[in-house]
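Record type: ASSEMBLY
Status: queued
Input:
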Amino acid sequence: MNDDIRTILAEHGRLAADPKTLADDADLYNAGLTSHASVNLMLALEDKFNVEFPERMLKRKSFESIASIRTCLEELTGAAK
Amino acid sequence: MSELTELAHRIGKEVIGPDAIDVDKHARFPKASIDALRKAKLLSAYVPKELGGMGVSIRDLTEICHVLGQYCSSSAMVYAMHQIQVVCIVRHGLESPAMREYLKNLVEHQYLIASVTSEVGVGGDVRSSLCALEDAGDRFKVEKNASVVSYGAEADALLLTARRTKDAPPNDQVLVLLEKKDTTMEKRGEWDTLGMRGTCSMPFLVSGTAKKDHILPLPYSEIASRTMVPFSHLVWTSLWSGIATDALRRARIFVQTEARKKLGTVPPGAIRLAEVNSMHQSLRAVIEDAIAEYERVKDNDDLLSSVRYTVRMNNLKVSVSQHIVQMVNHAMMICGIWGYKNDSKFSLGRHLRDVHGAGVMVNNDRLLGTNASLLLVHKEET
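Status: finished
Output:
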């Protein structure tokens, strides 16, 4: 799942660094993730994983690292099963 | 009416109101107004009591802004923008001994702080910077080509955004306090605008240096979402609604004077006055609701950074700035030629010009664009 997240980050995150070189817990906002890019990131993740981020997840913390994104996605895909 | 609003009204009646026409006419800084607010120690109103301030609430500040807006929009805007800087320092700098010391000095000397968030070359996006802090031992140096610094020439200090280091990405910003004595400001243009003429918001090339303890510890992105953005929208909408309050007052006096002249008939403007009165009630309620909400959630960082809250605050700014234009237009229709004339006590020209600034300052279309983008992922509350 982390690889998928990194691929989507590379396509839509418009980060200053290559997502492949980022640690799972690296701060994506410090790496250059803007709020505009984070919307595209959310849309791409929703599409790829066939989920919908509920309102409670639409906050800064949910998208601050690859690990936090995975936590959200695991909760959502787990609930879908 | 609280003691604070009474005080603000008194300064408004005695100093700010009488100077407003001249400030507007000559696009000059409202020095007498700000000095009167200094004398009443209102520049440090939000500084906690333990540091010598009044320790007033966010709500108190918005009420003062609503009052000042009724006398002179420019003075009210200068006061509001200064408070935004003070509130950022108080809310995010109290653990720093240097900031506490600065706040004590601010109380004593009633320093005026200007904001330097805009920059030439970032396309109006204050959440990214080109300029960066440069390391200089226990100090830093920074040079910023700022597109707009309201009352920059008159301020005693600047709160400026910059990238943390020269290698940091554009959005890795910090907020730094520069004192005028360590700063040079080269004016790069003029401020000759339709309205809000006394804010003197000229472009400046700012170069300054300060000790590293003048860098606020929290990243700017968080200061912005927790404090600067929501609080700005609260004080701005409060002072803008003050312009509408005064326009409504002029229209109301006009209609009542007519009614006294022709007892037994309802003056033609009365129906429209009823309409503006209802708009004003809604306007104030929307702002009140947002103030109460912010006071409730101001320490809930998660909520303040949420899509929902961002959308709501943008909506507040857009909707208030649109409604006040409509309200002043209505007041103009009610007062007719007496509202249209510049030399009448019902004159509404300055109000009309000033309220048009509200939609342009942090352009409504930019905010609607942000909301349009956020609404692609937003889910309504159920």
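Annotation: Chain B touches chain A through 26 residues (CB under 8 Å).
Annotation: The first helix of chain B runs from residue 3 to 26.
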